[in-house]
Amino acid sequence: MMTFLTVVALVVVAIIIFSKIKNLENQILILRGLVFEQKKYIDELYEYINKHLRAAKGVPLDSAEQTTIQDPSETAHPLVSPTAHTEMPTSPIEPPATTAAAPQSTEPQVEYEASAAPAQANEQITYSPPTIPSIPKRKPLIKNEDWVGINLLNRLGALLIIIGAIATAAFEGFHPILRTSILFVAAVAVILLGELLSRKKPTIFSLGVSATGIALLYVAIAASHFELQTLNMYAALIACILATALGVFLATRYNAQVIGIFALVGGYLPIFALNTENYPVLVGLVIYFVLLSLFSLILALTRKWTVMNLIGLGLTIIGTIYIGLIVQADALTALLYACFAFLIYSALPLISAYRTKEKFSELDVWLIIINTFISSLIIFMIANRLNIQNLHAYLCLIFAAVYAGAALLIKRKINHKNMQTIFTLTSIAFGVLFVPFFFEQRWFAIAWLVQGVVLLCYGVLRKQKISEYSGLSILGISAIALIVNYSLLFSQFTLNYTFFTVGLLIALGCYMVKNRHKGGNGQAYKIIAFVNLWIYAMYLWTYYAPLDFLLDYRPKSIYNTFTLSGGALITFALAFLYAKIKLWSDNSVKRLALIMYAVGLLFLWIFNSFPYENTLTLIIFNAVLQVTALFVLSEAMNLCSEKAKGNPIKIPILSAYFLLAVTQTMMVQADVAFSSAIISIKYAVAAFAWIIVGFKLKNKPVRKAGLFLSMASVAKLLVIDTWGLSTEMRIVSYVSLGLILMLISFVYQKLSKD
Fold this sequence. Notes:
Elements: H1 2-56, H2 116-122, H3 145-170, H4 176-197, H5 204-227, H6 233-254, H7 257-267, H8 279-302, H9 306-326, H10 331-356, H11 362-383, H12 391-414, H13 417-438, H14 444-462, H15 465-488, H16 493-513, H17 520-544, H18 547-550, H19 556-580, H20 587-607, H21 616-640, H22 650-669, H23 677-696, H24 700-721, H25 727-753
Helix pairs in contact: 3-5, 4-5, 5-6, 5-7, 6-7, 6-8, 7-9, 8-9, 8-10, 9-10, 9-11, 10-11, 10-12, 12-13, 13-14, 14-15, 14-16, 15-16, 16-17, 17-19, 19-20, 19-21, 20-21, 21-22, 23-24, 23-25, 24-25
C-alpha cells in the first residue's frame, strides 16, 4: 500500500513540475518577442524624430520620404503607453527665418519654402506596426490546469483518505471498538470540516471534503458490521438510513451532485448485510430501497443530475436482482418493488427536465433505454415465480398505458420530439408484447394484424409518421406469424390469411382517402397489397377450386394442368383490373400488371405442354385459353407503349404467338414431330395469309413477316424435314410448298400493282 501511495505521489509531483517548466519556457518565449518588438519600435521612433529635424532645418526629403508618417506614439504598443509621448511635437517644427536668398547654381535645385515643410509634415502617413515573428504554440500537457488542480487532486485526495480509513479498519493493533470509534469520529470530523469551509460560500474543495466525510461514514458503518462486528444488522441498517438522509440533505443544500452520488452509493451497502431467512428484515430492506428511490425523485424535483440517476439506476437494478432472483424474497413483494423502481426511473428524466427547464441529454436517453430493457426483463423473470395466468400480458398493458401517457405529457408540457418518440415507440413495443403473452399461437397473426391496421390507419389519416411506420412494422410481424402458421397450423391458415388480406385492403383504402397511394410509402404499400391479393386468389383457387365438379375424371396430371390454367385466367383478370381502373392505376401498377401477364402466359405455356385426352371440352377450353392469351398479349403491348395500340407490328407478333401455340398443341396432343412436313406446309400457308392481310390492310410489316416466314418454311423443309421423310412425302412436300410459294408470287404481282 505504501509503495502504491509513493508512486502516486511521485507521479503527481512530476506532473506539477513538468507543467511549471513548460509555463516558464512559454513565458521566456513571450518576453523575447516583446523585446524584439520594443527594439523595432525605438528604431522607428528615432527615424520619425530625425525626419522632423531635417524638415525644420530646411533639408529637402528624397522621393521615398515625401510621404508623411504617423506619430508612433499614436499606435498601441504592448510595453509603451501612448501617453508617454505627450512631450513629442504634434505639429511640424517651423524652419528658421532667412533673409538672404540661396545662391543660384547651374544644377537643378529643389525649391523649398518655409510653407512647404509644414504642408509635408501635416500630411497623414500610414504606419504599419512592426511585424513580430510568430511564436509557435505548444500543446499544453494538461488542457485545463484548474480542473487538475482543483477537481482531480481533490478526488484523488478523497480516495487516498478513504483507502487510509479502510487500512485503519484492517489494522489489528487497536481494539475493534477503538477502531470503530476512530472511523466514526473521523467521518464526523470531516463532515463538520466541510460544513465549516462551506459556511460562507461552498467551493469545490469544501464540497469534496463533505463528500469524503459521507464516504467515510459509510466506510465506518460497513467496516463496523462486516469486519469489526461491533454493530449488529439492525444498528447498521439504521446507521445507513441516517447517513443516506444526511447525504441527500447536504447534496440538496449545496447543490452538489458528488455528495448525492456518495450518499446514493453508500445507501445501497445494506444489500450485503441481508439475512435471507429473516422475512421482516427483507420487507424492511425493500421499504428502505423504496425510500432511496424516493430520495432520487425528490432530488429530481429541483436538480437535473443525470450521472447520479444513472448510478442510482445501476444500483437499483443490482438490488432488484438480488432481492427478487438471488435471495428469492417474496415474489409479490419483489415484483411490486421492481415495478415501482422501474416507473420511478422512467419518470426521473421527465420530472427533472420539466422542473429545471433543462433540455434532455444523451445520458437521459440512455437512462430510459437501459431502464426499459433491463428492468422490464427482470420484472418478467420475477413474475414467472407467481403462478398468475396472463400476468405478463397485464404488465405489458400497464407499461404500455404508462408510456403512452408519458408521451402525451411530453408533447403537451415539455415538447421534446426525440423523447416523445422514444416513449411512444416503447408503448407500442409493450403493446406488441401483449399478444404472445395473452393469445395462443394460432391467433398471433390476427391479433398483430388488428394492431398494425389500427396504427397504420391512424397514422395515415392523422399524418402521424410514428404510428404509420409502427403499423407497417407490426404488419410485417403479422406476415411472419402467418407464414409460421402455414407451416405449423394449416387448419386455421385460410381464416388468418383472409383476415390478413382484408386488413391490408382496409389500410390501402386509408391511403387512397388521403390520396397518398400514388407516391412514396403509399405507392409501395399499394403494390404489396395488390401482390398479396393476387397470391391470396391463387391460394384459394389452388386449394378450394371445385375441379372435381368440373371434370368427370381426376387424374393427377389433369388436375394440376387445370390448376395452372385457372391460375393463369385469375392472373389475367386481376392484372386487367389493376391496369384499367384509373382510381389506383399508375406506372408502378402497370409494371405489376405486365409482370402478372408474363406469369399468366407462362402458366398457359406450361399447361399446353401437358398432354390430355382429346375430348371436345378440353379442345374448346384450350382454344378459349389461346384466344385469351392473344388478348392478354395485346394488352401487354398497349401497356408497354401508348403508341403500340395502332402499331402495325402487333399483327405479326400476335399471329406469331398463335402460330407457336398451334405448333405446340400439334406436337404435344397429336404427337407431330417438329421435323414433319406438315408443320412446314402450315408455316407456308400462314405466310400466304399474312401477305394477303398485309396487302388488304396496307401493312408493310405484316407483308415482310409473311415473306420471312415463307423463306423460313422453305429452309426448314430443305434442312430439317428432308432427312426424315420418305420418298412419297418428299414429293408431296416439295410440290405443296412450291405451289404455295408460286401462289405467293402471283399475289405479290397482282396486288403490288394495285
